Amino acid sequence: MDDQEQKLKELFTEQDFRESENGNSEILAQRKSLAQSFAETGNGIAVLSDYQKDISYIYSGALGKKIGLESNSIKEFSAFEEAIFKHVPYEELIERHILELRFFQLQKTLPVCERPYYCMLNSLHFRTTNQKYIPILHQSYYLESFPNGSIWLALCLYTPFVENNKQIIREIINNKTGETVLSDTYKQLDKQILSEREKEVISLLAKGQSSKQIADILNISVNTVYRHRQNILAALQVSNTAAAVEIAVRLNLIH
Predict the structure, then answer these.
(1) Which of 88, 234, 19, 44 is nearest to 226 (CA)?
(2) Where's the HTH luxR-type domain (predicted)?
(3) What is the pLDDT of residue 159?
(4) Is the pTM value of this prediction over 0.90?
(5) Are residues 234 and 6 in contact, defined by beta-carbon separation less than 8 angstroms?
(6) What CA–CA distance (Å, rounded) separates 157 from 140?
(7) How does pLDDT run across 99-122, given as a tens digit for each residue?
(8) What is the DSSP string of 39-73?
(9) Which residues fall within 8 angstroms of residue 190, CB to CB, at 6 or more apart?
(10) Which of 143, 162, 165, 138 is nearest to 154 (CA)?
(11) Could you tell me which of 212, 214, 191 has the C-alpha nearest to residue 202?
């Protein structure tokens, strides 16, 4: 798992899960059955992620054999499906990372009962065992959340599809209404990721300014700059400044 995916994993697995587990095992069994049924029916790959236990359940049909999965049913001790991500090009993982940040921000604004209606949809490519790339449609749902808002179970579906002029799909859809979340909403979600001061700091970092120089420019202490830098890494779910700048540029957070 690369640094970006490791930090994104922490965003989910470090949520507050101090909730009663009464009935959780029954719900988990139902959702595992749902994932397995999709894989068997669509011959794709279904991944049910349990963020509370930091475990993923991977079920696959014919698509799994194409990328070398050893079994039709895998229990992986990581809520993020590393067995899948390692077959996806780096650039596409970055774009997926950005869309997941937006999806997570959107989910925090929704009532828990509304969350399962929303779907993150994006196109990827899988590297097969013969080193060729095939187009994949990826769908992600947050199926179960605790009353305090912590996301518990997520379902990712991977299905081969036919590209039309190599179109790129990166959308969040409300499956209840059939409406697509508009780009204006993305812009509002992006603005909420960093504070105004953090945007100033990341913008100066992007220009190559040191922490001491940033402190002088903003008339704040170096320790305050360090604190802002750590907050930026946590908010963007990356582990270093270079990755933070790259994500911030793509989110239009750089002044």
Answers:
(1) 234
(2) 187-252
(3) 94
(4) no
(5) no
(6) 6
(7) 988 898 898 889 999 999 999 999
(8) HHHHSSEEEEEETTTTEEEEEESHHHHHTT-S-SE
(9) 102, 105, 251, 252, 253
(10) 143
(11) 214
